[in-house]
Fold:
Amino acid sequence: MNTTGIRATGDASPLPQSPLSPPAAMAQGRVVAADKSPAAVRRVAWSSDDRQGEDAQAQGPRAAPVEQVAGQEPGSGPGPVALPDTLLYQIFSCLKIGDLMPCMRVSRQWRRWACDAHVQRRCLMRTYRGVHRQQLERAVASGAMRPDVAGRCAAMDRDLARGQQAAAHAAPPSGHLLLAVIPILLQAGRLAPLATNMSPSLHGDIEQLLCSPDGRWLASSRKLPGERCSIVDLWQAAPGPAARLHSDASYASASMLACQLAFSSDSLHLGVLYDKGHQQVWRAGAQGHWQAVPRAPLFDGAVVKVLPSPDGQYLAVVLRNRVLIFGEGERGGWSEVIQWSSAWPNVQDLFSLSSGQLALQFSDDSRAFVFAFGRQGLVCSRWGRDWQEQRLLLGEPVRGQPVFAGHGRLFALATGPASDQGWSTVVQIRFWLFDRGRWVAALDPDRRGSCQVLGARAHPQAGYRVPMAFSPDDKLMAVPSGDNCRDVRVLPVVGLSVRSGGVKLVHWRAGSQQAPFDCLQRQQFSASSDFLAVFTDQTVNIWQRYPHFHRVLMVDNPVASAGAPFAFSPDGYHCALSGRNRNLVGVWGPDGDGQYMRKCLFTVPEGRRVERLLFTPEGTRVLMVLSGRHIQPLDSTEEFDFCYTTMLLSFHLVPSLPVSRRPNRRQDAAVPPSS
Structure:
């Protein structure tokens, strides 16, 4: 790999810090050391020998991660100060719920205010943003979180339980359940499954899995092997065995693939779009019975790519010769009336283009939409009910998907050439800013009058895609390093511009023989913006943001790398990751002291493999898609036959130990094998 590249230039800008975190100076080009010692980072290899070594480390003295910014020495701060109640209330109200939990262990005064229902409610609103908060409120209000789960969690902390009971009459039911469950899940040192829901073995591969906004229903589409058709299944996400409410195979005989599933915002309708323009809508009736609603086809043609908006109200469809946007229908699904359409005479070659050259993205507020392929692109903005189109001049082919800042007024798009020799190439990340009703090229804040351009490297191992991410709080942006194809640079976002400098996250020690052969594949911020997951060919790394960027988890296993099933919880503090040949699932998150640790380890049924992971909107359950062989004897013979099947698995996560007790990592939860 050619690792010669361009470096980010410009004045250094300090990254935003937590209100209670000590400031950390971040000079230009400063590198976070990749110390892989046991005291610095929890390293997982998903083997029995390595787990025993990790258990031995866990039994030793607990130490916070010590990865320091180069040149910075760790210091000891003063003890807790008896602040006035008014000031303490104002400070705590500015925190996120995950930062509030460790404050309970400082002093009685701090605990009293950290347990205050009004303070916790304000912290919850600061933690969850936009779509995440709406989904969580709907999930809790629907009753999907069972009262006995909330009661069991609250009983583990009597002081917190008393605080919740005192505020039960003033708080709405949804808020009461939130405050009863989420804080204790964050404080718990260990989680255990309360119940295991298994579906029967299904023929075919589950390609899509979707949970309704209120957490009551599941929808899945599975492709039959050897056939070009899909079957859509509806499930009830309730206690007990997974109940399949409906299985729709009506479009299987027509050789149609389900390319998009979408629940309505009220979770009472399910829309299914097939690859030839037909759509099927199902409506929830009494006692969980779903009925088909006749709907006309949306369009006539083969689908290249589809993308729903974050709020579920719009659907973008790319065909061979045009791009369409549909709105949500009054009876569920999507309305047949096209809200916006644009013809592209050169799109007939889209099937031959790699996925990195076809860009399609909505902004988080669903008011802007970017489409680009090759050297052409456009951006649409919605004011009222109309979409306004604006063409983009790119110059070079698109490399990867565009990313929007949370406020929707700034987006980034990478362009650059490919190498005919198979080496990495230098690409450019350009920014567009919405100003005075138009999208204009953003100016470099360090060099007035010139357009802002960041340099990065793209490698053919990643399809020349450039993975980028904005943090949900609009304060940070993560981009590939301009020095190589494996490291990440985190830049501060100030106002509507991205500053240069920032922090470089190095995944390997300097001089490591393995470092040149690792390639960045994707990266993802948690919903709370406090954690960054970075996936390469060889590793999965979780970096924590405060008090400065330090790595809290590293999975060093080629099997569990770029394609490893992974999911952040809706609150952004927990994550689920599958490793060791995908027969284990670990749930990681902060404990009462704020240390990132493994809270639970699931062993999937023997002979099964984890294909997909998903948290439900309320964050108390983990959904898994498992695949494996189903063996049975042949009729009247001693021979056996087998077929590949898939199944759904669900865990209810509940604290199994009080906050004050240290968990025993050897007592890992195991799922009983399926019959």
